[in-house]
């Protein structure tokens, strides 16, 4: 934990970090020359997309695992298909998506995947599950479909990985628990980010009040299409609150303007449509001690690769006839490297 959460106690005067001055934080002002990259950081989780590469697993028994990627027309769905294909999994040529995409064919990695709308989903899924008894469903659809989809998977009895955020989460867990199916459910599929979150939770649990009196400034930047506040940022802030920091969620600085993201945050232009930059800055009451935590994600490969690991994890649980229950990415991490 010490190596993961190693933080600097160097003195950073507020005038050296103008974007973190309290007056400007209240007004939501972000100065022109500040970037996530140039600010001193001691913890950074950065990744970028490109060609998703994995070691060949042609001799692995997992190569025959069939997966059905629902939401394959979306950016995350496509990223998962690329990661799964690279890992040697078999992507079945069927997918569910919104009615507007029904009838479309998504061509990716040399595969043609027929997209079906919401109607007649149960019959189609049951047929696919009968053809592929070892099927694992991956869900990257939309928040509005989360609960109905989970109910469908439970009714058919197919194991699934749910990476879609939103929906009624309490109802989601209730539905899956009652259906007694294998599932991995996590709104954050990036294993490294999950590990960081877990370490923060351990620190908060074991050292409550360690940062009492410290002030906190939080800035998060995501693609313009993300209208809500980052759930990861909220989880990290919750840990800081347990550590004694007073901070309201509405104080989070959300950056969604592409121009600001390039000029002030330092997001590469090619990743404006898909990124997650987070910065947490803590300052002591007398302004003599400063801690910073930063994790920057460009693209979607970190989530796609984590999803593939979740699929391999779940397939293993099914094969070993383990408990049919809801697992999460912490469980996947504890299992170790799946590939």
TrEMBL record:
Q: Which residues form the Dihydrodipicolinate reductase N-terminal domain?
A: 65-189
What GO cellular component term, any one, is given? chloroplast stroma
Alphabetically, the GO molecular function entries are: 4-hydroxy-tetrahydrodipicolinate reductase; NADPH binding
E.C. no: 1.17.1.8
Domain of life according to the entry = Eukaryota
Which catalytic reaction applies to this protein? (S)-2,3,4,5-tetrahydrodipicolinate + NADP(+) + H2O = (2S,4S)-4-hydroxy-2,3,4,5-tetrahydrodipicolinate + NADPH + H(+); (S)-2,3,4,5-tetrahydrodipicolinate + NAD(+) + H2O = (2S,4S)-4-hydroxy-2,3,4,5-tetrahydrodipicolinate + NADH + H(+)
Family matches, as CDD domains: DHDPR_N
One matching Pfam family: DapB_N
The Dihydrodipicolinate reductase C-terminal domain sits at: 193-333
Keywords assigned: Amino-acid biosynthesis, Chloroplast, Diaminopimelate biosynthesis, Lysine biosynthesis, NAD, NADP, Oxidoreductase, Plastid, Transit peptide
Question: What does the record give as the function of this protein?
Answer: Catalyzes the conversion of 4-hydroxy-tetrahydrodipicolinate (HTPA) to tetrahydrodipicolinate.
Question: Which NCBIfam families has this protein been placed in?
Answer: dapB_plant
Please report which protein family the annotation says this sequence is part of.
Belongs to the DapB family.
Q: What is this protein called?
A: 4-hydroxy-tetrahydrodipicolinate reductase
């Amino acid at each position: 934990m010490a190596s993961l959460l190693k933080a600097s106690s160097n003195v950073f005067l507020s005038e050296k970090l103008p974007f973190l001055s309290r007056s400007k934080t209240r007004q939501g002002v972000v100065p022109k020359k500040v970037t996530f990259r140039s600010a001193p950081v001691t913890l950074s989780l950065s990744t970028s997309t490109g060609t998703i590469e994995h070691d060949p697993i042609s001799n692995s028994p997992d190569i025959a695992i069939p997966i059905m990627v629902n939401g394959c027309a979306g950016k995350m769905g496509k990223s998962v298909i690329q990661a799964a294909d690279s890992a040697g999994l078999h992507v079945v040529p069927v997918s569910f998506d919104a009615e507007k995409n029904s009838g479309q064919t998504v061509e990716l990695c040399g595969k043609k995947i027929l997209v079906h709308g919401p109607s007649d989903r149960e019959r189609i899924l049951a047929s696919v599950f009968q053809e592929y008894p070892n099927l694992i469903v991956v869900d990257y659809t939309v928040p509005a479909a989360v609960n109905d989809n989970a109910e469908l998977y439970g009714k058919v009895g197919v194991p699934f990985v749910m990476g879609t955020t939103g929906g009624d989460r309490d109802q989601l867990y209730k539905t899956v628990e009652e259906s007694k199916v294998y599932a991995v459910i996590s709104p954050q599929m990036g294993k490294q980010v999950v590990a960081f979150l877990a370490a923060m939770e351990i620190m908060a649990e074991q050292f409550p009040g360690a940062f009492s009196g410290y002030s906190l400034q939080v800035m998060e930047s995501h693609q313009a299409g993300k209208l809500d506040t980052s759930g990861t940022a909220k989880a990290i802030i919750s840990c800081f609150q347990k550590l004694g920091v007073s901070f309201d969620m509405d104080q989070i600085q959300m950056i969604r303007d592409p121009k600001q993201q390039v000029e002030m945050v330092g997001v590469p232009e090619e990743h404006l449509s898909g990124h997650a930059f987070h910065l947490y800055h803590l300052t002591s009451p007398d302004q003599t001690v400063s801690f910073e935590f930063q994790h920057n994600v460009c693209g979607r490969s970190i989530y796609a690769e984590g999803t593939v690991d979740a699929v391999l994890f779940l397939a293993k649980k099914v094969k070993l006839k383990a408990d049919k229950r809801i697992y999460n990415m912490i469980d996947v991490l504890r299992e170790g490297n799946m590939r």
